[in-house]
Amino acid sequence: MLKLIIDTNIWISFLIGKNLKGLHYFLQDNRFQIITSNEQISELIDVLSRPKLQKYFSKVQVIDFLKLIELKSKIVDHKAKIDICRDPKDNYLLGMAIKMLII
């Protein structure tokens, strides 16, 4: 099974409806496992709550979207202290990747 970590910006673009229909493939194909964390889910909730994005989707769509991610993903608690990303807020994504290498 191939494990995938998807950046929060990609998830947001997917929900907005940008040309990322291929994500449906990964969500439906059991050969792929989406990896996420509570930290990423919290970030998604924060970003999706921003007024400038709310014109693109309803609250019901956001709730359904978050349920789908939680249903189709393995949630990992990474605890790895990484500090090498250009965007320090993305260090947790590398922490998840390192955790998945260990498992």
From TrEMBL:
Signal peptide: none annotated. It comes from marine sediment metagenome. InterPro entries: PIN-like_dom_sf, PIN_dom, PIN_toxin-like. Transmembrane segments: none annotated. This is PIN domain-containing protein. Residues 3-99 form the PIN domain. The lineage of its organism: unclassified sequences, metagenomes, ecological metagenomes.
